[in-house]
# Entry
Amino acid sequence: MGRNETHHLDVDWARMTERLLYLFPPVIGVGLIGILREADPGVPGLERGLLLVGSFGYTVLTLGLAVALFLDARRVRGQGGASSHWKPNPLLNAVFALIWAPAAGVYYLFRRHKRFGTKPGWSGWWFVVAVSLTATLFGAITAGIAVILVLPGLFLTAVGLAGAIAFGTFPIAIHQDAAYVCTYGDGWRPNPAFYLGVAFVSLFVPPLQPIVAGYYLTRRRQAVQTV
# Structure
């Protein structure tokens, strides 16, 4: 009975780390909207509320990620086999997460993948990457037209829609699909954490997102023959 309870309570902290990292872009996006709303007097208190939600959410995710990294690193150190040449320090990883959570999580998963790999999931995540790429390109074209025709409403709508899709789906999709390609692909073994990190950066450097997505989908087609 005790063994069964222990088995059911066993938590995959690496998987938990992935899920927590997926939540950072939407939370950061909410905070950015709050900052932008400060320059636009609309609903009273809306910008402050969005900033509070973003700040509180980021803090909660940071604490959760620090705990997840600490516990997973401690588990890895206690294992043999593939972990014998990698002994992550639980405390250092937790402190790094408290200082810069997204970077700490991505770096840890990058190192972990080299030893243990990353569990693959759905084979269709490439389609979500493609949708994100299409939305970004469409948003950029529409925003350009709005600037030329001086249509601020259309500009904000185009940028907001493309940004929402990118922040909400792109990092998750490319990380999940890279795990699938790394497991089932032919000759190409992308590190999912590397692409997750690049996806995070691309959210703040918009021109990078279509470049990364286009390159990834091209390499994926060669490796899996699906796209």
Observations:
- The two ends are 48 Å apart (CA to CA).
